[in-house]
Amino acid sequence: MHGNKTALVLGATGLVGKALVRQLLVDPRYTSITLLVRRPLPASLFSDPAGKLNPIVIDFGALQDYQGYFSVSHVYCCLGTTMKIAGSKAAFRKVDFEYVHIAAQLTRAQRAESFVWISSVGADAKSANFYLRVKGELENALMRMPQLPNAAAVRPSLLLGERAESRPAEDIMQALAPMLGKLMVGPLKKYRPVTAAEVAHKMITLQHFE
């Protein structure tokens, strides 16, 4: 089945973003995939025999200036950072809340068919945990945004996969993941570690296909 869908991906160089782009490149429903990135991509990062990929280097601090790129069928937002990398709560919030919120507004303005982003299991605007609170506040803001069609969040727990940067606590959890996964059944199932490829696949299934 060959389609005529177009996609825009933000956060294409992260763990889920890379897995997502690789799946979109082999999905016959998509004819073109635009990536908004901070810096030029290494040629070896993605295999693109069909010539679908269109990477655009932008300044995320002026994301609203790139509204035209949101004129696509589907917008995938894989943006996210950590407190360690961000360096402060304000810097973390800028990436994980503000940039995603602006992306949703641009998606609405350009009348894209759907918007899917990455949240987190346990996201709650009332959480005492800052990370989960920001994720919850974002969910509330986007789900209540008028005229944002087919908005959906993926809520992964611990992500399995090779990251560019070291995260010692996550490295330990990755080693324990096979055992933890078997223990997490019933209500705990949502906390099972998942692979980036699984999260990416879930994002694609949440998009609006007609």
Q: Short summary of the structure?
A:
The chain is an alpha/beta fold and 210 residues long. It has helices at residues 15-25, 83-86, 89-109, 130-143, 168-183, 196-206, and strands spanning 5-10, 30-37, 53-57, 74-77, 114-118, 151-154, 159-160, 194-195. It contains six helices and eight strands, in the order βαβββααβαββαβα.
Verbal overview:
By secondary structure, the protein is α/β, with parallel strands linked by helices. It has a single domain (5-160, 195-206), classed as NAD(P)-binding Rossmann-like Domain (Rossmann fold). The protein is built from six helices and eight strands; from the N terminus they run βαβββααβαββαβα. The strands form two sheets. The protein has a six-stranded parallel β-sheet, sandwiched between helices. Strands 7-8 form a two-stranded parallel ribbon. Helix 1 (15-25) links the parallel strand 1 and strand 2 (30-37). The mean pLDDT is 87.
CATH topology: Rossmann fold
Mean pLDDT: 87
Cα-atom Rg, whole angstroms?
17 Å
Structural class: alpha/beta
The helix/strand series, from N terminus to C terminus, equals EHEEEHHEHEEHEH
The percent range for helix content is: 25-40%
Pfam families: NAD_binding_10
Domain NAD(P)-binding: 11-130
InterPro entries: NAD(P)-bd_dom, NAD(P)-bd_dom_sf
Protein name: Epimerase
